[in-house]
Every structure is written in structure tokens, then in C-alpha cells.
Amino acid sequence: MEYSFPEGFLWGGAVAANQCEGAYNEDGKGLSIQDIAPKGLRGPITEKPTEDNLKLIGIDFYHRYKEDIKLFAEMGFKTFRTSIAWSRIFPNGDDEKPNEKGLEFYDNLFDECLKYGIEPLVTISHYETPLALSKNYDGWVNRKLIGFFENYVNVIFNRYKDKVKYWLTFNEINSVLHAPYMSGGIFTDKEKLTKQDLYQAIHHELVASALAVKIGHKIMPDSKIGCMILGVPNYPLTPNPSDVFESMKQDREILYFADVQARGAYPKYMDRYFKESNIKIHMEPEDKEILKNTVDFVSFSYYMSSCATADTEKKKASNAAGNIISGVANPYLKASDWGWQIDPQGLRYILNLFYDRYQKPLFIVENGLGAVDELVTDESGNKTVIDDYRIKYLNNHLVEVAEAIKDGVEIMGYTTWGCIDLVSATTAELKKRYGFIYVDRNDDGTGTLERYRKKSFYWYKEVIRTNGKSLIYNYR
After folding, report:
1. Any idea which UniProt keywords this protein has (predicted)?
2. How far apart are CA 172 and CA 247, in angstroms?
């Protein structure tokens, strides 16, 4: 069976500034919330940056981006998703003037992409809120962050309007429910954070996202601005109606965020939740009008699916690990080295779910396999990684993307996470590798930072060259 993708399909890969750039205190950059989170999403935060925080150096992309983008071009990338570190542009977040050195770095980065015909796909806020906004304002709990964000997007849209066409507002915006510090810059301890403050913070982010769309369309009429959702579809564990209903409720935790950004208003099902949770969202008179500025497309990450059950004992007995969100294990699925259940068909399912609901173009901006890779020397004497397991994972997911296209789903592109090894967001490890390019750096900080092409590098190059025709049905 031969697969093909639409002409102009945006093949590429994705990274985040805080996980790859390093140079955390160079050229006027201020501290971000990541710089004091050495153990990732689930770990404690420190008073100041510590040497065990691998993100402070990352993979030194800040100094090596030209080398890396050349490798992406060799693979044939049509797009490269990265983020702007907000604290490179506004070191404290509330500064009056932007940091010119930070602006210049992204000028150079985007120019380097365009030199090879690679379209930058830029996330405006990717888990890297300036630390000062977190400490001094409690992050997005404070409405003042809307104004600071508005100032930030005005600066970057005006600066890069001729270089960047595709934008995402907030990375995995719904993850704030599970990681309020990392996702929302909320400094209040998660255990002490009230639902009222959490959902008020969410409202502020949703308004800010819509405001970015409004500003972006004015400054860049031809731009495409999308939202970005952490996508984990929920299957009922059994046909028991209680399990089916529980899966619907858990899906709404994801859909709520996309509903507001793609439809332009709060969904009615949230009224009951707010009432029963004693949550009263404070809205300024202009908020409802601002929210009507809907996104041009819906993007999302997909690594795994989950199961839902109303049976509390089954919930306790069967827990599946995941990217920020964890759920009940599916007995029909295998898992990765980190316990994430592998479900290629779930990608086709969520593509259809989103497209049926929103009738807007979709963009898969994260999908990949984190694994322990072994660097070996091949017959030609070159260092590489024989990562057939990654090829199998990506091939089988892309086959399901092709099936979704046949289903009638409009899909703009696909960017693997992360196209080059980087520091994990959830665990802050380097041994959890995703890339087509091996980076010689280890969890203890040792390594040369040299780059080596893995077997999957050449596989993905062929997928892009053939526009998907080289994919294998039922790859084993």
C-alpha cells in the first residue's frame, strides 16, 4: 500500500528554546522558570540556577544552530518548530524596552532557516515564562500578565513579520491543569493553589492567546496563528456507561481549551463545572469580544492515549505513565522505556475528533519516541545509532496520519519531537532521547556536544523526499 501526503505538506521537527539553547545568562537574557527547575516538570525548584540543571547548557543550540539547521536541511525539512525564550526578549517580562541582543539571535536563527527554504514555526510561550513574572506576579494568576504578553507579541510580530508566517501561542496550554508552575508560571505551590486561582489564570491565558491572534492578523495579514493542545485521547476502560461518561469528562479537560480558542467562547458544559466547583471567572467587559478572535488552525502534541474509568479501585491499581498527564493503562497496548503507552491508531482517532469538532486545519507539532540510544560505530567507521525502534514508532504513526487524510481530515504538517536530542521537559534527562541526531552529552554533564546522524535520520530524509510514499504499512 502506498501513502501520499498533500502537496506542500510541512514536514519537519520541533524543539523548545529552554530544552536546547543553553546560554541561559548570555547576551542579556534574564532567568526563566526553567532555570531553577533542575529536575523537570515533576521536580522541586531551587533558589537560583544550579550546576545539575542540564538545561543551562542544553545542547548548546544557541552557539551551534547553524550546524544543526544545516543537518535539518539535509533531511529536507520544510518547517522547523522552535520557541522564543521570552526572557531573552524581556529579561524580567515587565521591562519597558526589549533586549536587542535577544532579538538579534532570533533574527539570525530565522534567517538561517529561510536560507535553506525552511519555514520557521514559532511558539510564543513554551514553558519558559520569565522568572520575575512568576515570582513577582504569581504568573498567569495575575491579569497584568496579559499586558506584558501583549507588549511581547507586539515586539516579536513587528520584528519577525517578514520572516515567520506560522505561529503558536501557548505550548500545551491545557497542561496548566497538571503543571501550573511550568505551564503557567504560577509560583504558588500546586498543593496550595485554589481552583479559583487556577481557572482565573487559565482565563487570562485564553484572553492573551486570542489577543495575540488579533494583533498578529493586524500586523501580519497573511500569517497563520494556531493554538497548541496537549493531546491525550481517552478511551473508556470498559463499555460500562459510567466509564464511557468518565472518558467524555476527561476529554473535555482537553477540549475546553481548544473550544475557547477555536470557537471563540466558553463551552456551555463548563458552566456546571464552575458552579459545582464554586469558581467564578472574573471577566473584564472586553474579554468576550477578544475571545472571538479564533485561531487559524489547531495544533497539538500526541505521544499516547489513555483509558478512563469511574471505578476508583481500578484507577489506583492501573496507572500508566505519561507526558504530564497520566491515566489508566490500556491492556491492549505496549509501552515505551518510560511507560508511555504506544498507540499509533490513537493519533488517527484524535485527528478525526479535532477535525469533526472544529473544521479547521490541524497540525501535529509533537510526536516521537523517547528511548535510551546506544552510540555505535558502523561498517564505514561512522558513529551512529541503530534506532529501528524509533523508525517503527514514527512510521506506524505516520501511516495513521495518512489514513486520517483519507478520512478527509485537513492536516497542514507534522513535526517530530525533538528532531535533535535535547533535555527532557518531564524528567530533565539527556538519556531520554528523541532525535534523528545524536548529541554527545550525558546526564552527568559530560560529552563533547558533537552531533551524529542516527539511522532514523536517513529514514526520515526518505519519507520527506517521497512525501510519505516510502512509509510501510504494518511495519514490524
Report:
1. Glycosidase, Hydrolase
2. 20
